Amino acid sequence: MFQASKLVSLIRFGEDEVPPLDFNALQENPAFLDFLKAHVEKEVTPLKSKNADLLNEKKTLAERMKAFESGIQEKDDLEAMKAGRLDLQTLLDKRINANSATWQEKLAAEQAEKEDLRKAVDGERLKLKQFQIKQSIGQVALKNEFFHPSALDDLMSVAGNTWQLNDAGELVARDSSGNVAIGKNGRPLTPDEWIAGLTATKPHYFKQMPGSGSRGVNGTGKAVSTAEWQRTLLTATADEKKALLAKRASGEIVIN
């Protein structure tokens, strides 16, 4: 979190006072986050390049040292063979083993690099999927007239435990056993129906309904729960939804 600080600003006579800058709000501003990311990358990129140069230089020096040591060993082996202390087969086996060890080292290094790259790619894919899930569920929640926008952060953590993206990039809800969650109509659960169902398990996510606690005009209104009302709207046609909203406005239907 940013620490709020007081900034001094010069205001000409007749101008409105500029409100203090809210640093906490800045961290939720996409434009500011993009600006910050660009500047961080600008500062970090030269350091990454320098680090890569140093690593390449170190690798080159190591290869030269190894070649130098190999040359010395080759000279010693040839002298030993001429003196009869080393036969040809032993020399060949020694060279083959040395080359094999070198290639094994290179192969292990390449495999480790590929594994690191795979982990990095998987991590970025996971972040992207989580962002897409939160964005999609958040949009559905904010379209719900009773949902509290202040509950959005808490909703995101709950959604992450229920919703996943399939290979086609579609949202799929899964139960605790990993099976696809089914809605009231026998089809896969939709985000709208899931949000509506939270009125029973997470009632604090939703606003107090207009007319709550009453029974409408002259006390004759039909009382329904928030969850029932949301489910009814979800399954209603356009004309039925219009009629339901009219009944609610007139007091024939009261949300408890």
Automatic annotation (TrEMBL):
Keywords: Coiled coil
Protein name: Phage protein
Organism: Pseudomonas salomonii
Coiled-coil residue windows: 100-134
Domain of life per record: Bacteria
